Amino acid sequence: MDLTIRNAKLQDIGFVLSGIREIFKIENDIFVYNEKKKLVSNAIRDKHIRVVMKGGRSVGFLWFRISDLTPFGLDYGKWSRKYCWISFVYAVKSYRNQGIGSLLYDDIMRICKKRRVKQIMLDVFTVNKKSASFHKKRGFKPLLSIYRKTL
Ligand SMILES: CC(C)(COP(=O)(O)OP(=O)(O)OC[C@H]1O[C@@H](n2cnc3c(N)ncnc32)[C@H](O)[C@@H]1OP(=O)(O)O)[C@@H](O)C(=O)NCCC(=O)NCCS
């Protein structure tokens, strides 16, 4: 398939936001457009979003960050090593199961290798069964669970 991959550009903001909106829907989370818009444009500026193109159309993206700060939303402080935190990975619904997600992971693994990053992390929401099976098949293992009680 004629898939290519590149850094996101400012013109991709709408595409990335619509993908994140869909992910939030899957994960029953609240999507605040203006909040996310600023974060997306900063991530694009910092080259933290990779976009897959097919025949001139954006069909998927992966948002990552390489850092030595601990993830999980809890401040455990700094680690002695760098890791790559994946915020979002997304393929347009009608283009799923055609290798876009796999290509995004091949790409991020190449970036990690180049930058000597030894671990990739991401959160998987319990409701998102597809994401869990997709990542498990690619060698990811559950590390911790975050419990929530709504008051
Ligand atoms: C998770 C997600 C990104 C996977 O993207 P994808 O492009 O469908 O991923 P792939 O096509 O590489 O792989 C999916 C399946 O298609 C199969 N596949 C890959 N290339 C294929 C091809 N050319 N022909 C047929 N099947 C193919 C793979 O074997 C894979 O099956 P597996 O997961 O059982 O191993 C996608 O389902 C998605 O966007 N979900 C909604 C967003 C989301 O929940 N994101 C995760 C939380 S941030």
TrEMBL record:
<feature type="domain" description="N-acetyltransferase">
    <location>
        <begin position="3"/>
        <end position="151"/>
    </location>
</feature>
<dbReference type="InterPro" id="IPR000182">
    <property type="entry name" value="GNAT_dom"/>
</dbReference>
<keyword id="KW-0808">Transferase</keyword>
<dbReference type="Pfam" id="PF00583">
    <property type="entry name" value="Acetyltransf_1"/>
</dbReference>
<dbReference type="InterPro" id="IPR016181">
    <property type="entry name" value="Acyl_CoA_acyltransferase"/>
</dbReference>
<dbReference type="GO" id="GO:0016747">
    <property type="term" value="F:acyltransferase activity, transferring groups other than amino-acyl groups"/>
</dbReference>
<protein>
    <submittedName>
        <fullName>Acetyltransferase (GNAT) family protein</fullName>
    </submittedName>
</protein>
